[in-house]
Amino acid sequence: MAVSGVKEFEIKADPATVMAAIAAVDRLPEWSSAHKSVTIESTHDDGRPHRVRMSVSILGISDEQVVDYTFEGDNTVSWHLVESGQQNAQDGSYVLTESGVGTKVTFELTVDPKIPLPGFLVKKAQKTALDTASKGLTKFVESL
User: Fold this and answer.
1) CA 63, CA 42: separation in Å to the nearest integer?
2) pTM here?
3) Burial status of residue 91 (CB atoms within 10 A of its CB: 0-12, 13-18, 19 or more)
């Protein structure tokens, strides 16, 4: 059962600074407790990550994932799951919009687990991911 969610939040920094923090995927374990390790396997011509392998653990479920990142300037980054032991699919994105206090961030995430899990557990894991993204990313960017 796939679940989707959206979270909007503000970060007191310009979009280029926020995007630079998001593009530093090798630093994900510093602000996302779900990410245990991250390895950039390939990059785009501009040096931003393309294919990334990561070890994650959320609600006691561990997984090795490979995702491909796509960047559109300093406004949008999205990723698509290439391989995973625990998920059929995962698609996510950050869309950044300049705002009066800095940057409005819209984070979207869709996850489809392989193993049958109760719906409430899948939604709890997704809520945890959305909350981590908003709180962790905000604290990380604002501390730079």
Assistant:
1) 20
2) 0.91
3) middle
